[in-house]
Amino acid sequence: MIFRHETPTSSLSAIALAVIAGPVVAQDPKPARTPQAPPVFVTASRTAEDPFESPRAVDVVGEEQLRRGQYRTLPQALRELPSVMVQETSPGQGSPFLRGFTGYSNLLLIDGIRLNNSAFRAGPNQYWATIDPFSIERIEVVRGPSSTLYGSDAIGGTVQVFTKSATRYAKSGLAHGGAVYSRYASAEDSVMARGELQGSQVWEDGSSTGILVGGDSRSFGTMRGGSDTGNQPNTEHEEGGVDIKVEHSFDARHKLVFLHQQMRQNNVPRTHATIFGESFRGSAVGTDLQRDLDQQRRLTYLQYHATDLESAIDGMHLSVSWHEQRELEDRITNANVERWQAFKVGTLGAFAQFDSDLGTLGELTYGVDYYRDTVNSWFRRSSGSQASDGIQGQVGDDSTYDLLGVFVQDRVALGERTEAQVGVRYTWAEVDAERVRDPSNNTQISLSDSWDEMAASAHLRHDLLAKKWNVYGGVSQGFRAPSLADLTLFDTARSGETEVPAPGLGAERYLGYEVGSKWRSERLTARAAWYYTDIEGQIQRFPSGATIGTSPAVTKANVGDGYIQGTELQLAFEVIEQTTVFGTHTWQYGRVTNFQGAALADDYASRLMPMTTIAGVRWESEDGGLHAETFVVRAEDADKLSAGDLRDTQRIPPGGTPSYTVWSVRGGWSITPAADLELALENITDVDYRVHGSGSNAPGRNLVMGMRVVF
Question: How do residues 608-634 score in pLDDT, each as one tens digit?
């Protein structure tokens, strides 16, 4: 059981005890199964709403699902959603493709604060894996462009993670407790553990203060692939992190929140680029003797939230933050030359959001946000006979990047059964880079540029049956201003290519269309959607014809015009009491122009998600103490390859990534109200397979065990 210690005191000793005391569990265990209230979703409209009533394709991955899924990384927690493909360059990295877009074309928020910064590279990147999935309460996913509310980068989708609350024990007096989480996976040879402490104090005036302190450590050994692949060397790394959150509720309507979190990954290998890579169905093997990445991320924020103010402003959300992300690459080439390069991005961020109830004119949400990146790419040097680069590292050195946005959105009822959401946003972006290498003559240049953009959206929902069946549709403009990486990156890209700076780029523009329908009843939930994203001026990479050393040089231009479209289906049906069949289905197709040789040509969109179906059955005991499920993932051949995909020979086999069928089972047992055990056997048939675009094969037969103990 959960033991809570309560003392009606406000002494200094009680405050000190509250500071070191511990946290709360994901959900208080319940003696019997009880109906669940609809989840609250805020990302699609920046205000609380039932996701069933949102006129968008949205999903919530709650804390219970996070615990039961025992996902290795945050990106993996999204892999069972429609139109989501999680590419993994290595086991310590992960880059979700949402509706055909990845990397800096998707936006990730942490409690409303952007993870994205101007140094993010094009294509898949590793930064989402720097968030500990054990430290978050839920994940919200909005698919499709959301630039009206969130600005640049919100193209394929917007994902927001919400960190765990620090006040769940607060009832009266002093309360404290703790929790320990652990995870073991056989095919990953991995061990993960997290400990939490939480304390809360309810004061005599009715206010309350809660503190949560958490820390974790993770060790990943040699990844074992399927029956034919076996062990995949050079897939090991370690990581760990700590976080602290303090919440003070003045009353039920006013809250002040402080958070600091940090995570570090050590020596995460880019295995496919090294001689230790494993050829899969004819894919090439890299030539580097070593290529490892260290990642470090630190976020600190202070936020103030006020609701139900019963004035002209009903809600207020204010935030100021400092977000620091560092990256170090240690590489040894096949000529035994060691190279180091690193950069640091410090981001000062702030947002102010306000909500006003206008009666028959709707519910207005409006505000402003601002982010300023300060970037130091402070060294790039080589051992042996090659000289150090004194101009820049991976991106332009001594750089700043500013991003300012002003937005407004209205949710208004158009009769008893129809609701509209309309919005508009103005965004301004500016870059100043003092030290940039000119690839044409190897001299130092500087660049300065700016962009501004208006984006609008309109979505409509109509209830065919109140609270049970609706149809929806909408149009959303999206855009992405060129990043510092677009303009100044000087680094290896894909399979041995070298990407060079490309000043003078313009903004990308998108127009997303979506129609869908949702059904929700006591035994059946079903959703279907069709989307079409029009692409204008997408920044595309293509060979310039030059070489950097022995590597072909790749440059960039706004030449990508085209589209990506697809369908999404989701179903969950309780066939008999406590037993549910469920499934998803995704189909996707897209064409985008790019240079092929000296001429522009119509081409496939890069790394299109193959047609994928998930089908399974889930059972849960009446009291919720036992649960089990089995499911199959079927992905068809990923053979619609762009010219860039064809050049990515180390990750994509000739002719494309083969189809696969993977069968898994998992279940759990609430041993006591204070202890939960989760077990899974993934890839039961030990299939050799690779998620399209990944740098190594997925784990073979994999026993995963997770444990949570609260006290």
Answer: 999 999 999 999 999 989 999 999 999
Domains, the chain: 12-710 (2.40.170.20)
SS3 145: coil
DSSP assigned state of 235:
-
Average confidence score pLDDT of the chain: 91
**In the prediction, which pLDDT does 655 show?**
96
Q: What is the dihedral of CA 526, 49, 259, 483, to 10 degrees?
A: 70
- The three-state secondary structure class of 135 is helix
Range 575-591 average pLDDT: 97
Percent of the chain with pLDDT over 90: 82
For the chain, how big is the Rg over CA atoms in Å?
A: 25
Alpha carbon distance 601, 594 (integer Å): 6
Query: What confidence tens digit (pLDDT) does each residue in 40-71 have?
Result: 789 999 999 999 999 999 999 999 999 999 99
Place of tokens 């899969």: 280
3-state secondary structure string across 623-671: CCCEEEEEEEEEECCECCCCHHHHHCCCCCCCCCECCEEEEEEEEEEEE
Give the amino acid at 419.
Answer: E
Q: For the whole model, what pTM was predicted? A: 0.93
Give the tokens for residue 327: 């990256």
**Is residue 496's pLDDT more than 80?**
no
Residues 6+ apart with CB under 8 A from 609: 83, 85, 97, 100, 566, 586, 588, 638, 692
Contact 2, 674 (CB under 8 A): yes
- Half-sphere exposure in the Cβ direction for 507 (13 Å, CA): 24
CB atoms closer than 10 angstroms to residue 506: 13
Q: How far apart are the first and last CA of the chain?
A: 7
Eight-state DSSP code of residue 78? G
Under a CB-based contact definition with an 8 Å cutoff, are residues 590 and 605 in contact?
A: yes
Question: Long-range contact list for 569-576, CB < 8 A, 24+ apart?
Answer: 569/82, 569/526, 569/527, 569/528, 570/82, 570/525, 570/526, 570/527, 570/528, 571/524, 571/525, 571/526, 571/527, 572/524, 572/525, 572/526, 573/523, 573/524, 573/526, 574/522, 574/523, 574/524
* pLDDT at residue 380 in the model: 67
Beta-bridge partners for 42: none
- For 128, which DSSP code? G
**507 is written with which tokens?**
């903004």
Amino acid at 647: R
Rounded Cα distance, 67 and 65, in Å: 5
Distance CA 124, CA 153 (A): 14
Number of residues in the chain: 711
CB distance 139 to 112 below 8 Å? no
